[in-house]
Amino acid sequence: MALPFPLSDLLVILPELILSELALGILLWAAVVKRERERALAWASLASLAIAAALLPVAASFAGELPRSAFGGMIALDGFSIFFKALTLLAAAVTILFSLRFVGTSPYPGGEYYALLLLTTVGMMFMASGTHLVSIYIALELMALSQYVLAGYFKQEAKSVEAAAKYFVLGAFSSGVLLYGLSLVYGATGTLSLAGVSSALEAAPRSTLLMVGVVLVACGMLFKIASAPFHVWAPDVYEGAPTPVSAFFAVGPKLAAYAIFARVFFDGFGPRSDDWAPVLAASAALTMVVGNVGALMQTNVKRLLGYSSIGHAGYALLGLLAYRAGGAAGQPEAFGLWAILFYLTAYLLMTFGAFGLVVLLEAKGYATESVDDFNGLWKRNPLAAGAMVVFLLSLAGIPPTAGFVGKYLLFSAALKAGWPALVVLGVLMSAVSLFYYFRIVRAMYLVDGEGEVRWREEPAVAVAVGLCFAGTLAFGVLPQPLIALAKSCLLP
Amino acid sequence: MPEPRREPDPNLRLLGDVLSFGWVLPACLAAGGGLGWLVDRWLGSFPAATAVLGLLGFAGGIRQLLREADRLEGRRKDTPGSGPGPAGDGT
Predict the structure, then answer these.
(1) CA distance B2 to chain A (A)
(2) Which of A125, A286, A379, B8 is the most buried (most CB within 10 A)?
(3) A371 touches chain B (CB under 8 A)
């Protein structure tokens, strides 16, 4: 029987295929490995991610000229997807480094944990290259289903189970909204391929059916990036999930969600940007306010970083709104898009750095939870305290850090695209954010420490945090290489 | 008889403080960097004075922020509804 696609199409998804096989292999291995040797599973998972990363350029070279479409237009391989795949692989690798001892010393088996982490990464990689609404939806569900289980992985802890239940119920609801939107879009255009939808929108007259469909799709996707008013799950899930998983949720799924957001709304719904841009703008404004004001009263560090990540989702939405800004001398088109690529890379580095230090601080045998647990850290570990200051300054957007350059690019793009009010709001909210970030700095430097919080000696986490620290400063001082890379990885 | 002076809403006062808090560091940075730039222009030594005074402005800004954060944290703890959040169970 002939295959409905040429065999060479399989080469386009070679990294995903191999990573899926390796994840299943780890799952099988976990069934027979002894508890005390589970650390080997973590290293095998890291090796799997490294293999998948090494296969990215191989797949690109086999694919020939980029962009390369495969499986009848369901999947595409281009610079944009490769950039996001590399970032998601990096996010998963850092999460495994954070989890090595965290999961190893917990009473829960680690095998399924690492397999689920790899499978959710496969989902994110497929999301980055989806060019058909069905392939995008299936990839999104592969990512989300693994995440629901990961959120509740510490199944004897009430908060972990509560987090998983909330995430599952709200996630299922948002999937339903997204599917309903997709069905309306299909009803209005007669196709689900992004190129087909785009052509149909250019030819079709304005219709309520289509507008409702587009808005529902937007709502489904805004949930995935924890953008207001669909953000309520994020602080609870980040607080309840195991800390390395919270770090992963704050970064990985958002990267993939921004990838599909950009592709669906610009490759697919681009011709109707006048209809959806106000919805996105309202959500961006609300997200920046809710995230930053919500963080002000938090005393739990994971919740605080959860609210902070909501605020950051709002900043990144500015880049989507300004996607087509540019055209001035020296500015290529899609200024907003490469600004997002830069910002998301910076966001990955600074968020993982901050969460890594939360993992390293141990209170009552677990990762720390309260801002007070940082009291006096400066005296106990001045290097860690200094690194935390850099990550927090970067999150607030203070120079000379990558977070500052990222915000500067996003705000410039939004100004160029004609959204000055949103830029003013973004700057104001950045000023507000400095207050809650400085509550942690104050605890580290001005308050005496208490005895029950101790510092974990974990070389793997320390290395990951060190790399994040170096990247946060390096891209703040010398942003040009990353900007050049982002400019070369735009949507075709 | 004059009416007793009404205390402003503590939440609004905190929001005002928080909004002004954010400008301390950029203002110190701009003051230091700007002064350095003027000195550099005068002496033709760019970027030496800009870098040195900019760094001094940054350090001064951080110090001022820490002092402000300490003061505001005390006020935040006195604000109704700002008690400790839900206790974590160690995940």
Answers:
(1) 36
(2) A125
(3) no
